[in-house]
Specification:
- It is built from 7 helices and 15 strands.
- The chain is an alpha/beta fold and about 260 residues long.
- The strands form 4 sheets. A 5-stranded parallel beta sheet has the order 2-1-3-4-5, sandwiched between helices.
- α1 packs across α5.
- The two termini are about 30 Å apart.
Length: about 260
């Protein structure tokens, strides 16, 4: 029987104090050494600008350990910047200043840990958060825009429409224009396991997950946009949409049954 591969967790530590950053790295490594279901990649940053450069270059991290007090800006400000690149980032604030705890939760921080309690509280935080990290849909697509190389989560794409020589990705938050043919974009999505993406006609890709209404003339998406659907595509899209709805219902039913036990 083939052995199941471990899940990978990538952790970024940001602390301007090198000794403190290495301390957090050591505690993290020690915890993951005792957990044989996870592999760890961890990197320590002393400068928030270097961390942001990595994120702009499409690096991905599951968990961010952020010092609240930094020379150039607060950890809260860094967290707000990170949220521009991540839909659901996991923040653990590590600091000597407990008076900032309430502010930390403005960015939905998972934990706020005083540095004097790191050895005790950081492993507890990992134990609590890793099951949630494992459930996250991490499928991404990297796209070149005029300004950047952007990382887009597949779950954030509603639909993609052809506009001349460009493809316009309509996302949960805004849109992105890329110089790529619709057919090539679909190939990229399928290569990342995006079976939920289908052509509705020759100039439009839809994420079937976000279809709320389907007729022979048009599709209505979760953002209320009406999109064309060709006769040759209608039946397959409808079947896929119905299958996904049924799958979601089964998941909900299972969770309800588990909750009653």
């Amino acid at each position: 029987m083939k052995q199941e591969e471990n899940a990978l967790c990538r952790v970024a530590v940001l602390d301007d104090n090198q000794e403190e950053g290495l301390r957090q790295k050591t505690i993290t490594e020690q915890y993951f050494e005792t957990n044989n279901k996870w592999d760890l990649e961890i990197k320590v940053f002393q400068d928030s600008r270097l961390l942001m450069q990595e994120l702009k270059a499409a690096e991905y991290y599951d968990i961010f350990l952020l010092d609240y007090e930094l020379p150039d800006k607060s950890g809260l400000a860094v967290a707000n910047e990170i949220r521009r690149y991540y839909d659901e980032p996991v923040f653990i604030f590590v600091t000597n200043y407990v008076q900032y705890a309430v502010q930390a939760f403005e960015v939905n921080a998972f934990r706020y840990i005083p540095k004097k309690l790191l050895e005790e509280k950081l492993p507890e935080a990992y134990k609590a958060i890793l099951p949630k990290v494992a459930q996250k849909d991490k499928r991404i697509i990297r796209v070149n825009t005029a300004e950047n190389l952007d990382v887009i989560y597949l779950k954030d794409i509603f639909y993609i429409r052809k506009e001349g020589k460009y493809s316009i990705m309509h996302l949960r938050r805004g849109e992105i224009r890329i110089h790529k043919a619709i057919s090539a974009v679909l190939e990229d999505l399928e290569a990342m396991g995006g079976s939920e993406f289908m052509l509705s006609d020759k100039g439009c890709i839809v994420n079937v997950t976000y279809i709320i209404s389907c007729s022979r003339e048009r599709l209505v998406m979760a953002d209320d946009t009406a999109l064309p659907v060709s006769r040759s595509k209608y039946k397959k899209i409808r079947e896929q949409a119905e299958a996904m709805i049924e799958a979601k219902c089964n998941i909900i039913k299972r969770k309800v049954r588990e909750g009653k036990r």
